[in-house]
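Researcher: Can you fold this with flavin mononucleotide in place?
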Amino acid sequence: MGVGISLAGLASAVANQGGIGVISVTGLGFVHPPVNNVHFKVGNVLSLRKEIQTARAQTKGLIGVNILIALTDYGELAQTAWEEGIDFIFMGAGLPIQKPEAIPEETWKAILTKVVPIVSSDRAARIICRNWQKHYNMVPDAFVLEGPLAGGHLGFHKAHLELPEYQLERLLPEVIEAIKPFEEKYQKPISVIAAGGVYSGADIFKFLQLGAQGVQMATRFIATHECDAAEAFKQSIVDCKKEDLIIIDSPVGLPGRAMNNAFLQTVSKGLGQPTKCPWKCLQTCDFTKAPYCIAKALLSAHTGELDKGFVFSGANAYRIEKMTSVPELMDSLIVEYRSAADYFHKKQDWYKTKTS
Ligand SMILES: Cc1cc2nc3c(=O)[nH]c(=O)nc-3n(C[C@H](O)[C@H](O)[C@H](O)COP(=O)(O)O)c2cc1C
């Protein structure tokens, strides 16, 4: 979760509980501005190294990074993460049709880091597999399949967000089917990780039953003591009501799910247009047309200045009632998962005795 919501603190706490902790790479050079006033791209690389090393010092568990393909320095950041021996690189906000240019081809093929593109359809998964097959004779290790209930940027047309055929439960079997020929050809499993609106242990059980090998959860982990955002950011998730959640048009060029506030209302009236851009952090952003600077807005939100920014959040944010710790949250998910599994198996046994 960027900017600065999931850093070494949250990622290592999750990894210590047996999950894969994910550090958001977006805007790291702004989150920890380097002392020598270096170019922000150099700052991003330095801060990423520091963040990965801090996480590693706090856990022996699995750590990944999330890098947006739309970032202008996506290649350098992917290379840095790989040099630091990161376990996973999750690639969002675009289709990683080819490897990051900064990483040499031989290295890419021999890479131990698991590379996991984030997709929202079977079509996207197929396009990536075909392209990697063509260019590198390889396929990804896994996909995150993000459905329309996710927080942040969404890989769907606004008009499709609520249609039944675009819900995660319907998309998951389609993606699993689409990657089967590639799994067979390369004789390796390609895991699918379901994301977007996964709230309880029962939800995790449901998506594993539908064929996912894991789930990615974001919003629930904002309301934890270990989350790296300011208290005001985290508390806004606890205070959130269903009607606060809206879909915005992000300057990234995608719709996004966020919590409505005075800042978003102001920029929706065209009152937040940037007059200059010293960074050009996003390939897809033209500051002369952007309604506001999303990097600045998300950075302000991360530091708790919610009047100058806004909070991205998943569709189930309003269900969160209190702040908790990562171990408590993980324990409750496990208890709920086991109880859903027990119920499912008892029901199956009952059905068998009835029909035998
Ligand atoms: C505050 C926030 C920031 C996010 N930032 C990113 C991001 O930088 N990159 C990305 O790929 N996904 C991002 N997401 C999406 C999440 O990684 C995740 O897939 C999704 O929100 C899962 O749904 P959930 O929030 O209902 O659990 C963000 C989500 C939230 C809530």
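Model: Folded with flavin mononucleotide in place. The mean pLDDT is 93.
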